[in-house]
Amino acid sequence: MRRGRAFTSDDDVIVVNTRPHPLRDAYHSVLRMRWGWLLALIAGLIVCVNLVFAVIYTLLGGVSGAAPGSFRDAFFFSVETMGTIGYGAMYPTATATHAVVTIESIVSIIVTALVTGIVFARFSQSTGQLVFSDKAVIGLMNGVPTLSFRVGNDRASTVFEARVRASLIRTEKTHEGVTFYRLGDLVLARESTQALARSWTVMHPIDEKSPLRGATPESWEREEIELMVSVVGTDDTSLQPVHGRTRYLLADIVWGARLADVLSERPDGRLQLDVSQFDGVVATEPTSDFPYPRS
């Protein structure tokens, strides 16, 4: 089961001669961090700011209740100032120290606003976690070769009005000998569902109009075909949009197979969904129209 996290072209393509956007890129990098790393980054930022002001207070002095030249007292005074704690045991007495306290108060407001905004943005992100089957399969479905893969939501919530899109990227050579990467959409048997829960099997019939018509493992490798899949919808708990995408290469395609059944009927008549079979693949019998055994 592969997570439905967006992959970037940087995985395979080295991008050069782009305009740098350090602040904007840093913000997006922070939003993509794991919670543990994000909290560690926030704590480290606050400690570093306090260390800077502690050095200034140590050099200036003018803090009543702090031992002269004590970096420890200066650091704790900075923490109390930035956190607006104000125990009263230490307070500024010199004009220069008052000025530094004023500057630190302004800095603390800015830092608090930035941290609050980032934490809120992380909390407000949708909770849906879209996943895709490890393999896509190509096998006969009612006598028609069909490309199939699974999409599911790995959370207890439901993604409603989910839409899936599948595209094919293949390498072609023009008559002039220029390498061209052609992108084409695949027509799916069903492109949307009102409610996406644990499992949804997406199918593309390989008929006369399909760009995969006549495709073989050899042609797939020769043309460097990639299958791109994206899903968008709305999480029913947070009412926020959720999305996921993945890709399938030749190594991820199983020829002459179908996806294992995940639904079964219980003795009491209710349906049972076995999530352990989400990535299951079952070989199909080769025929004269589709001679591929399971690869």
How many strands in all?
17
Rg, Cα atoms, Å: 29 Å
**How much helix is in the residues?**
25-40%
The largest sheet, given as strand count, sense and whether it forms a barrel, is: 6 strands, mixed
List the helices and strands and how they pair.
Blueprint lengths: L1 E2 L18 H10 L3 H26 L2 E2 L6 H12 L8 E2 L2 H30 L5 E3 L3 E6 L2 E10 L5 E15 L5 E7 L6 E5 L3 E6 L11 H6 L3 E10 L5 E8 L4 E3 L1 E3 L3 E3 L5 E3 L7 E3 L12
Parallel strand pairs: 5-13
Antiparallel strand pairs: 1-4, 2-3, 4-6, 5-6, 6-10, 7-8, 7-9, 7-11, 11-12, 14-17, 15-16
Helix pairs in contact: 2-3, 2-4
Describe the protein's architecture and organization.
The protein is α+β, with helices and mostly antiparallel strands. It is 28% helix and 31% strand. The longest helix is centred in the middle third of the chain and has 30 residues, at 95-124. It is elongated and about 95 Å long.
Kindly list the characteristics that best describe this protein.
295 residues; 5 helices; 5-stranded antiparallel beta sheet; elongated; 6-stranded mixed beta sheet; alpha+beta
Provide a brief overview of the structure.
It is elongated and about 95 Å long.
